[in-house]
Design brief:
Blueprint: H1 6-29, E1 36-41, H2 49-61, E2 66-71, H3 79-87, E3 92-95, H4 101-104, E4 112-115, H5 139-144, E5 153-155, H6 162-169, E6 176-177, H7 190-203, E7 212-216, H8 233-240, E8 248-252, E9 272-274, H9 280-284, E10 289-292, H10 297-301, E11 308-311, H11 315-321, H12 328-331, E12 335-337, H13 340-348, H14 359-365, H15 372-380
Parallel strand pairs: 1-2, 1-3, 3-4, 4-5, 5-6, 7-8, 7-10, 8-9, 10-11, 11-12
Helix pairs in contact: 1-3, 2-15
Length: 383
């Protein structure tokens, strides 16, 4: 079993004590401001997705709100001391992913720590659920840094996944609310959707040519000691790209944590667009089909009722090293693809305006698919 080196353990303890001390002093000196909100960006540098939708609605509901954006990092450095001072008199802290400083302090009882987890449904395991797996943290580290602690409100897409999130966050299930995923409100705004499609096409002139757009968005895969699988999705896609029909265009949306170097095999492939600008939900609007491995984005794409598939030749390896909350064939209506030939055949059989029945998938992963943002903001503000 891996054990933390003594120097690292000592550093974490001392850092944590100092950080808590600064937070306590700041909390005593600064009066809490009921209109002060901190939004932590971790996955991207820009405000988008769930956080953007909640931000916009908060501005409407709280015209006097003072909203501060911070860029979360998983590093115990000098920057966090400044951030805990910022948090010391904040009323609302809003996250959609990991945020280290809130796990290291004991926040005011009046601070609302709101987790808008970025994933719909409950697919691959994360957080405390991965304890004891190759991917997960070890107990010694979690004793020092209790990740995903101190949440007062967690919002998920369906009541069916509450127990899974309670396990992942090591928290009481009565603080988890199945009110939905804010960013899916976009799909019910036809005028806004049309504007976004027009913007994307303007920024990507090659999209003016009428082809079948297949959106490909694999999940992030850890490297090194935490590696879940040896499967290389990018290499597979690069190898088979020449076998796609001429009317097929691949739009590859990298995961926010994917580094630029890993995209190199796709850079010069003529029938592949690397979609760096715009969110994945925005790219879904002009996509005729969707392919992933284990990304929960497939649940959101199901709302559009278009073809979808999972490329998962490494299912056994991934299950062993990380694991899933539910079997893929139970919660997804997507086609299961296990090899290169199946992938090529599935992509080449796609066409424009193709309907795909995802009713079972929607029923399993969403309780609400309309007015989600308003519902959550009203709940946060207790109106």
């Amino acid at each position: 079993m891996y054990r933390l080196p003594l120097w690292k353990k000592t550093y974490i303890i001392l850092y944590k004590v100092l950080l808590r001390l600064i937070y306590i002093i700041s909390s005593l000196c600064l009066r809490q401001k009921n209109n002060k909100i901190v939004i932590a960006l971790y996955r991207t540098k820009d405000l988008e997705g769930n956080l953007k939708y909640i931000y916009d609605e908060l501005i409407k509901e709280m015209p006097d709100a003072k909203i501060h954006l911070v860029r979360g990092e998983n590093k115990m450095n000098l920057r966090l001391f400044k951030e805990v001072i910022l948090l010391s008199n904040t009323k609302y802290l809003i996250l959609d992913d990991y945020y280290l400083p809130i796990y290291l302090i004991k926040p005011r009882k009046t601070l609302k720590v709101i987790q808008l987890w970025h994933a719909a449904g409950a697919f691959k395991k994360f957080g405390w659920s991965t304890l004891g797996t190759k991917f997960g943290s070890n107990q010694e580290y979690l004793n020092l840094v209790p990740i995903h602690s101190n949440y007062t409100n967690v919002y998920v897409s369906t009541e069916k996944v509450i127990d899974f999130y309670a396990d992942a966050f090591n928290m009481d299930s009565n603080k988890i609310y199945p009110l939905g995923i804010p960013r899916i409100d976009l799909f019910n705004q036809p005028k806004e959707c049309a504007k976004i499609i027009e913007k994307i096409k303007k920024d990507n002139p090659q999209l003016q040519e009428d082809k079948v757009n297949v959106l490909v968005a694999p999940t992030y895969r850890a490297k090194g000691a935490q590696e879940e699988s040896t499967f290389d999705f990018i290499s597979l896609l690069s190898n088979v790209s020449k076998t796609f029909n001429k009317n097929i265009r691949i739009i590859f949306k990298p995961h926010p944590y994917m580094n630029e170097k890993s995209l190199a095999p796709l850079q010069e492939v003529p029938n592949i667009i690397i979609a760096k600008k715009y969110s994945i939900n925005e790219w879904m609007l002009l996509s005729d089909a969707f392919i992933t491995d284990y990304s929960s984005s497939i649940f959101e794409f199901s709302l559009l009722k278009r073809p979808l598939a999972h490329v998962i030749p490494d299912l056994d390896e991934y299950t062993k090293n990380r694991g899933f909350y539910q079997d893929i064939d139970v919660i997804s209506d997507g086609k299961i693809i296990n090899n290169q030939q199946e992938l090529v055949e599935w992509i080449n059989s796609r066409h424009k305006n193709e309907y795909f029945d995802t009713s079972n998938m929607i029923r399993n992963n969403f309780d609400y698919v309309e007015d989600v943002t308003v519902r959550i903001v009203n709940h946060i503000l207790q109106r």
